[in-house]
Amino acid sequence: MKLEFNPQRIVKNPGKSFDIFSQKVMKSIKRQEKVDASAFSCELMSIGDVFEKQGKKPVMNKMAQRLAETLVNIGDSNLSGIIYSFLIKFNKDNAKIAEQIALNALAIANRQKDSIHIMARSYDLKEMHRIVNSLPRDYKVPFSMHVSGFKYREIADRLGLPLGTVKSRIFFTRQRLQQELKDFV
């Protein structure tokens, strides 16, 4: 598959650019053409950068996950794996979303009985858990509760801590994860 990089097109409308990108990928697969993983990754990252600059990360997450799911359903788990690896890195500043994406990727790999991707996604989760578990209990517990869906106020009430302390501990843990995972994907 030949991907033609057009930065002006992406900046004007990253959603449309992603749709065009997706269509090119799907056409190539239907024609049984080999998709260049490097070009695929570069185009994905370029579009992701624009979504991020425009503050539209959730839109990129949704579109990319939909493409990954489609790719798995038609039997291309390699490109799907690239998308999920990209999304984990793309969302490294939000551990809750990154972990959910890793869990989705693991569920897809399990469904497809794809042992290589099962191991890769399991490693992603294990690495995140290793970093969080290496933190002192005072930081690990509030962060784990936050990732599990508790609100700051609920965590503060349950742990008997001031709200500001809970927020700063969760912020510190996010920073630590971001620092540790910067070269992760």
Structural notes for this entry:
- It is built from ten helices and no strands.
- It is an all-alpha fold.
List the helices and strands and how they pair.
Elements: H1 7-12, H2 14-30, H3 37-53, H4 57-73, H5 77-90, H6 95-111, H7 115-133, H8 137-147, H9 152-159, H10 163-180
Helix pairs in contact: 2-3, 2-4, 3-5, 4-5, 5-6, 6-7, 8-10, 9-10
Structure at a glance:
The chain has 185 residues and is mainly α. The protein has ten helices and no strands. Helix 4 (57-73) packs antiparallel against helix 5 (77-90) and helix 8 packs across helix 10.
The poorly predicted ranges are none
Distance between the termini: 23 Å
Class per helix and strand makeup: mainly alpha
Name the shape in a single word.
elongated
| Helix proportion range | over 70%
- Overall pLDDT metric: 78
Number of helices: 10
Number of DSSP strand runs? 0
How do the SSEs run, as a string of H and E? HHHHHHHHHH
Radius of gyration: 18 Å
What does the largest sheet look like?
Answer: none
**DSSP strand content:** under 5%
For the structure shown, list the relevant keywords.
about 180 residues; mainly alpha; about 80% helix; elongated
